């Protein structure tokens, strides 16, 4: 909105020329979202408390979590609100990729909101059935993938990290692959959201990394130099990612241990879906497994745990996802969280290095 209101006057006021640059607008999108979450955070937490929107803790989790019962949840609404407002203010709203990212964020957030409200209504911590939640996610992801493939004609070559001469053409299989990335990332972030600040930290780091990828993929000369796919218009997603980083920073102020507010499924499902969508559009889908390595590890720990128990009647971990395993081993919650953040930063640096190591 500010881009459309102010940039047309750049011929009269040269300083307004900065609104043209993608290197400028993601920074202020992040600052705007950060300010919104920091300022509105205390008011939002009070409102949730008054409405008795307190977290329902499942009895099958670590017993130390029972003391968190009643902590205001659905803080993802604050995050998504800050992201949407900031993106609308600073992004070029004629860019269809921006609207695709916002659509997935809103839709997955709505699915998460329904799930959170169902948990609060029945006070059992289970929410929507796994089938219902997955079905709704698949519908949204399928619609977006169809639009990217048939309407926007997005490049369907698969960009393989470290290998510049290997880029297989997926054709129509791109739709299946895109759905898998979007839905898989959404649920991976959701599984990680089990400790104070555990999911929002790696998500913030991942979106910061994708600012680099989006800008590089959307800049013809840089894309040619780095020998990565050029996706015209994808650079604008750097503004969206900047808004995500700012909103995550602001939310982390209140979500850090001991948390004053939880993100809820409304936040975790939306953030994961948005991250997967950005990865698909910028043609950095595979490298997402590196950037979001913490999310991948958390998901695999659940898959291996369930598979092992069904096949061998034995558990691999004391409890899954794996952050609960470390809790039961005696690690304090802050130690687990900070170490997972460190791993996320390490993996993000490796992911960025793939731009040159080809």
What does this 3D model show about the protein?
With 358 residues, the chain is an all-alpha fold. The chain has one domain (2-11, 21-353). Helices cover 64% and strands 0% of the residues. The protein has 14 helices and no strands. Helix 2 (25-50) packs parallel to helix 9 and helix 7 packs antiparallel against helix 9. The longest helix has 27 residues, at 96-122. The protein is globular, with a radius of gyration of 20 Å. The chain starts with a helix and ends in a 5-residue tail after the last helix. The mean pLDDT is 91.
Write the layout of secondary structure elements.
Layout (H helix, E strand, L loop, with lengths): L1 H5 L18 H26 L25 H15 L5 H27 L7 H22 L21 H20 L7 H19 L1 H7 L10 H19 L8 H18 L6 H4 L1 H20 L9 H7 L4 H21 L5
Helix pairs in contact: 2-3, 2-9, 3-4, 3-9, 3-10, 4-5, 4-10, 5-6, 6-10, 6-12, 7-9, 7-10, 7-14
Provide a quick synopsis of the model:
This protein is an all-alpha fold and 358 residues long.
What is the percentage of strand-forming residues? under 5%
Q: Quaternary status of these chains?
A: single chain
Domain unit count: 1
Distance between the termini: 38 Å
Number of strands: 0
- Summarize the helix and strand pattern as letters: HHHHHHHHHHHHHH
Q: Which residues form runs of ≥5 with pLDDT under 50?
A: none
Helix content: 55-70%
Q: Radius of gyration, Cα only, in angstroms? A: 20 Å
Number of helices: 14
Reported for the largest beta sheet, the result is: none
Bulk shape: globular
Structural class: mainly alpha
Mean pLDDT: 91
